[in-house]
Predict the structure.
Amino acid sequence: NTTYTVVVTDVETGCTASDTVNVVAESGFVIPDAFTPNGDGQNDYFEIIERGAIVVKEFRIYNRWGEEISTDGKKWDGTYKGKAQPVGTYSYYAVVQLANGERKVQKGVFSLLR
């Protein structure tokens, strides 16, 4: 968030006017629908992509049997108990707090690709 003040002066009359505006930055997030944990440095983690100031309160990953398999709470590298998990569809549950204090709950599915 930033406050801007603009001052304008008429060069002929010397009259001055000013105004102030407070610009509030929007916050949000995106959760991808696939990732590729293959070690190439691109899309190696399934994670919340932040747009502005947010706080991730919960981020859980589940396999197709409903077992929670994430351990970090912020991102997942495609492993569980040290083993690479198979290609397939997984589900997630996320609770995020936006900069304005609003809490958003989002759940869905995504694909692990290799």
Observations:
- The chain has a mean pLDDT of 91.
